[in-house]
Design brief:
With about 210 residues, the chain is mainly α. It has one domain. Helix content is about 75%, strand content about 0%. The protein is globular and about 55 Å long.
Length: about 210
């Protein structure tokens, strides 16, 4: 009897199309980033020298740093949306990325000299930068969690951390179009602080936001 019931329930099941989770997560993530960008422009505005900044190396360093952070977070979120997922490789990637930019920041401080050290490390927005990143990450995190809930995450805090890591990285990429700071130490310390703050908050919220209903 039980076998007949199981066969009956399984008869109408259709296989899930390949890459459904990737497409769903990507689609919601793009929506979240778009909302974050609109929020940033309305709230903070684009940097006034954006067209000039695009021609500088530092603009593209920030672009690459934040984009790689977001990509690593996206891969981690995708992995942890499934049962038994891991983000070990992405964690190694994050540590490597921060170590490389940190080393570049040390070189920049040595070249510029001690007189410029405070500016390179703190700039003019050190206390505001992480707050802006966390605030701009909210719509991206919400969209990512919405997509992940349709999958089957089992380690909810870690999945929430991964979603927050992606949201923080993507929000920092958006924020970089406003930020005029150009010190590598500033970027390494304060951008990373904002991203990790978003990830930690994501882990806390993920404990209940990613629960299966």
């Amino acid at each position: 009897m039980a076998d007949d019931l199981i066969d009956h329930l399984a008869a109408d099941l259709a296989p899930t199309p390949p890459r459904t989770l990737q497409q769903r997560l990507f689609g919601w993530a793009v929506l979240g980033v778009a909302v974050s960008a609109v929020l940033m422009i309305a709230w903070l505005g684009l940097r006034p020298d954006l067209m000039i900044a695009i021609g500088t190396m530092m603009f593209w360093v920030k672009f690459a740093f934040t984009a790689i952070f977001a990509a690593l977070g996206a891969l981690a979120a995708l992995n942890l949306a499934r049962p038994g997922g891991s983000m070990v490789r992405q964690a190694v990637g994050v540590v490597t990325l921060v170590a490389l930019t940190g080393a570049a920041g040390i070189v920049q401080m040595l070249v510029m000299g001690p007189g410029e050290m405070r500016t390179l490390v703190f700039g003019g927005t050190a206390l505001l930068c992480p707050f802006y990143i966390v605030a701009l990450s909210v719509p991206i995190y919400a969209a990512t969690v919405w997509a992940m809930r349709r999958a089957a995450p089992t380690n909810l805090p870690l999945a929430g951390f991964a979603a927050g890591l992606f949201a923080g990285g993507a929000a920092t990429w958006v924020y970089a179009f406003h930020c005029t700071e150009s010190g590598m130490p500033f970027i390494t310390i304060w951008y990373t602080t904002g991203i990790l703050a978003a990830a930690v908050l994501g882990a806390i919220v993920g404990r209940w936001a990613l629960r299966w209903r």
